[in-house]
Amino acid sequence: MDNVVLDKNKLNSFIVQLRARHPVVAPVHRGYNRYVFDEVENGDQIAIPYIPTILPPKKYFMPQHETLIEYDTRLGQTLNVVVEFASLVIFGVHTCDLAGIQCLNIVLSDRPKDLHYLFRKNRVFIMGLECNDYCDEYASCHLMGNDLPKGGYDLFFTDIGEAFLIHIQTLAGQELIEDMDFLRPAESFHIKALQAVRSRKKEIFKNEVDVERDEIPELFERGFDHPVWREIGNRCLSCGNCTNVCPTCYCYDVKDIPNLDLRSGRRVRVWDSCQNEPFAKIASGESFRAERADRKRHRFYRKFKYHNDRFARYYCTGCGRCSRTCMARINLKETIAALKQVVP
Amino acid sequence: MKMEKVLITDSSFEVKPATIVRKRVLTDKEHLFEIRLEGGEALNHDPGQFVEVSILGAGEAPISICSSPTRRQGFEVCVRKIGKLTTVMHNLEVGDTLGIRGPYGKGFPVGILEGHDLLLIAGGLGLAPLRSLINYVMDNRRDFGRVSILLGCNTPQSILFGDEVDLWSSRIDVSFHCTVDRADPDWKGHVGAITTLIPGETIDPDYTFAIIVGPPVMYKYVIKELLAKGVPESQILVSLERHMKCGLGKCGHCQIHNIYCCQDGPVFRYDRIKNLRGAI
Question: What is the pTM of this model?
Answer without folding.
Answer: 0.95
